[in-house]
Design a protein that fits this description.
It is built from 4 helices and no strands. With 90 residues, it is an all-alpha fold. The longest helix has 17 residues. The radius of gyration is 13 Å and the shape is globular. The relative contact order is 0.19.
């Protein structure tokens, strides 16, 4: 089973959905399901994904102040796309 860093559940939520929901458990399950279907069924692949998500959450995609300007994933990130769309609506 794929694991999601519990302190960084907002990272996959931002990347795939644009923002975290209001229910931690639901966000965790959704992220775990996406990881489970998108990763090779090996321990190494799942461990690498876990460690990369954890590091990305600690250094770049921080909970309260994400550093989107430094992020190498902005082209695929739903969060940054939502932010850009919100700026155009105003």
């Amino acid at each position: 089973m794929a694991a999601v860093p519990s302190a960084n559940v907002e990272v996959p939520a931002r990347l795939w959905f644009g923002k975290a929901g209001k229910n931690y458990a639901a966000d965790y399950r959704a992220a775990r399901e996406i990881l489970s279907t998108g990763l090779a069924q090996t321990f190494e692949a799942r461990q690498r994904a876990y460690l990369l998500l954890k590091k990305h959450g600690q250094q770049t995609c921080k909970r309260s102040h994400p550093k989107c300007e430094l992020c190498p994933l902005t082209g695929q990130c739903a969060y940054i796309q939502l932010q850009a769309a919100d700026r155009h609506v105003v």
